Amino acid sequence: MLLLAPMEGLLDATLRDVLTRTGGIDRCVSEFIRVTDMLLPERVFVRVVPELLNGGRTRAGVPVRAQLLGSDPTCLAENAQRLAGLGPHGIDLNFGCPAKTVNQSRGGAVLLDEPELIGRIVAAVRRAVPAHVPVSAKMRLGFNDDARAEDCAHAIAEAGADELVIHARTKAHGYRPPAYWDRLAEVRQSLPTHMRLPVIANGEIWTAADAVRCREVTGCEHLMIGRGMVTDPGLALAIKGQGNVPWEVLPPLLQIFWQQVSARVERRHRAGRLKQWLNYLRKRYPQAQQAYDELRLLHEPVDIEAWLGRAVAAVALVTVETVPMVEPPAEMAQPW
Predict the structure, then answer these.
(1) Cβ atoms 221, 186 nearer than 8 A
(2) What is the largest CA-CA distance in the chain?
(3) How high is the pLDDT of residue 319?
């Protein structure tokens, strides 16, 4: 199983929609919904996870698990209960976000120094939602160090989580390579038989070869990919041995991405979102480097739309049989 990772400010509902059209992803996790001291209205959940309006799935049919972030077990449980009523394909709990502003408000990775609290949060949420709704958690190896990684994993498992994703770095490591897959393996192996749950490996999976090595080192069958999939939308297919995504597929997807960004994002930030994705794509595709260079100084939507129109026209005669949904129905390009 391959999961698409959440990434605040990058891998949101718009990019989830586009990337799941290329194939290979089995499930997504949304970016976090921050819970502080109140029961959130349903519209907040829907804003972050608009797939809730589509049976909890992306337009390509890939299920989405909604993620909550916070430190109050009672408040998280109440919000999880309300969220479960909206039909997500499970609820995930964030114990891995490294952002300073999040950690300063006792959210994300900072809780990895408090495994007892993590256990209470998972247990409270598990009790609050129906038994058929999966509850999972995502953690890093630790905050400043990995001394309590086993304690956190044990707390999550003992509290009744159905699944655990481990990003193989601490908060202090950030996103700097390498990912410590061998340490992740130690944490997974430390779980007693009665606590065993699926452990999913995350971190530094950029190629199909990386996926093979990650599985060998960690012993994890299932993987979560994030920046690797943003950089190479064919990564999930490649990991599954089902081919890749050539450049000719991407201009129509860039156009759909732009249309959705235009509907959801303030005008002054729209060009930046498109360039942000192209900045990742140019690490994989030479054509994306050319596109990035041509778009770098464009800011007006009309100019960007004209460029996208030309790019789509240039590949319109190319036939690609290995990747579905290259030319989706027009309504699928519209926002939720």
Answers:
(1) no
(2) 60
(3) 47
pTM greater than 0.70: yes
Q: How far apart are alpha carbons 178 and 168 in whole angstroms?
A: 9
Nearest by Cα to 69 from 96, 90, 104: 96
Q: State the amino acid at position 159 in one-letter form.
A: A
Residues in contact with 64: Cβ distance below 8 Å, sequence separation at least 6, in sequence order: 16, 27, 28, 29, 30, 49, 51, 56, 57, 58, 88, 89
- Asked whether the beta carbons of 104 and 133 are under 8 A apart, the reply is no
CA distances from 51 to 40, 113, 132, 170, 192 (A): 18, 33, 19, 31, 36
Output the pLDDT for position 14. 96
Residue 80 and residue 295: Cα distance in Å, rounded? 42
State the Cα–Cα distance between residues 204 and 135, nearest whole angstrom: 25
How many Å apart are CA 138 and CA 201, to the nearest integer? Answer: 10
> Residue 152 — φ and ψ, nearest 5°?
-70, -45
At residue 9, the pLDDT reads 86
- Token match 């992803």: residue? 25
Report the distance separating Cα 143 and Cα 171, nearest Å. Answer: 5
Rounded to 5 degrees, φ, ψ at 196 are -60, 130
Cis check for the bond before 178: say yes or no (omega within 30 of 0). yes
Assigned token pair, 310: 């030309």
Write down the pLDDT at residue 325.
44
Determine contact, residues 163/134, Cβ cutoff 8 Å.
yes
**Catalytic residue positions, numbered:** 97
Question: Cβ distance 19 to 6 under 8 Å?
Answer: no
Question: Cα dist. 52→23, 93, 249, 312 in Å?
Answer: 20, 17, 27, 30
Q: At 157, list the tokens.
A: 């498992």
pLDDT of residue 335: 59
How many CB atoms lie under 10 A from the CB of residue 89? 18
pLDDT of residue 103: 87
Question: Which H/E stretch holds residue 140?
Answer: strand 135-142
- Per-run averaged pLDDT (10 residues), the chain, 336 residues: 93 96 97 95 97 97 98 98 98 94 88 98 98 98 97 98 98 96 98 92 98 98 98 98 95 96 92 96 97 94 95 75 43 55
